[in-house]
Structure formats: C-alpha cells, structure tokens
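Reopening this ticket.

The earlier resolution said the output was attached, but the attachment link was broken on my side. Pasting everything inline this time so it's all in one place.
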Amino acid sequence: MLTKEEQDRIRKSFKTKTWSETKAEDAWSIFKIMGEFANGYEKMSAIGPCVAIFGSARTLPDNKYYVMAEEIAYELTQRGFGIITGGGPGIMEAGNRGARRGGGKSVGLNIVLPMEQNSNPYIDHDKSIDFEYFFTRKTIFTRYAQGFVVMPGGFGTLDELFEALTLVQTDKIANFPIVLVGKAYWQGLIDWIQGEMTQGGNISPEELQLFKVVDTVSAAVNIIEDFYTRYALRPNF
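Inline output:
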C-alpha cells in the first residue's frame, strides 16, 4: 500500500506543465548535472589508482562482511591503492575505515537521498563529494576506479555491479578485475546467470570470466594485485 506522500509524488509526475516550465526545469537540471561532473572530475583528477568497494549501506559493524570489507580496504592501501566507496554507512563505511587505518586515500562519493544517507567519518576531508544524480556518481566511480570489489548488498549494489560488468563487456572501460566476495551470498545469482542468461544465449560462456567469486580477504586482494603486476595503472576513458 502506497503512502500518501508516495501517491502525491506519482500524481505530481503526471501533472501537465507549460512549455516554459519544462524548458526552465530542463535547463536548470543540465546546469546541475554539468556542475556535478565538473566538481567530480576536478576533485578526482589527481587521485591516482583506486579500487571501488561496493556493498550494502545496512551492514552493521559486527557483520562478518563489514569486517572483511575493512580488511580488504586496509590491505589494498598497503599495496598502493586508494579506496573509493559510496561514502555512506555499512560496507561503504567499512571500506573508508580500512583505507583510513591503512594511511591510504579514502574517497567517498555520497548520494543525496530522502531517507539516507550521511557521509561516514572515515573519508578524507578533501575527497568527499556529494551527488544528486546516480548516473553522474556512477560515471565518476567507473572513470577513477581500476578494480571493483563487490560485497553483499541490495538493489544499489547490483546496479553498480552490472554497470561495471556492462562497461567491461562492451569495451567502454578496460577489463579491470571485478571481485564478488561471499560465495554463499552470490551463488543464487551466479546460478541464474549461468543458467537462464547463458543458456538462453543472452551472454556468452566466455563472459562469465568477467568476474571472480571469492570467500577470503587474501583472495580478493590477490586478484587485484596480480592483475596489476601485468598492467600499468591509468584513469578510464
């Protein structure tokens, strides 16, 4: 059952607007979008090699995946990588916390939402960026991350995972490592990808190699590190 506020938002979206109202709103949106891109590019341009850590904002500090995310971030900083997260609580906080503990760069790309989220306290003060639009935020993620660690999460995490997979699949970014952590959590999705998607001809069997699934901190870190023993680090597109 929709709340009154949700019903009002739906009705408002169908409200007829004059051409002047539409033109004014679109123009203002364009300027806001340009501003988010400009701010993101300016702050991130000198950031250096980073790995993005995705995962649920609802994961609590006593959860094993929070602990693992913090340790993965810490170990990656010891190998010269900075860490980029969505800037919020849960797994994102764990990633920034590990980066801070390791003395590495700790970046937070925070999305402004009505019900959540506030930036976590472990982001470097000069590397916290707020976004109103998901697509501008994802562009900054994929431009400045040279690897992706995906912890258990919800719809937002899946969105980020499939964005990264699609960009690699279509050669829009280089074939950077995409590491899913938690075999038990991801197995149902993987079974569906291997079954419905692959057997249905919607992806090729070779594209199943675009990601790896691991269960330990060392395995996740080693995949990232091994990849970069062979290739130089550079920003995307």
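Reporter confirms the inline version is readable. The chain is about 50% helix and 10% strand. Helices lie at 4-13, 19-44, 64-77, 91-101, 134-144, 155-169, 183-199, 217-228.
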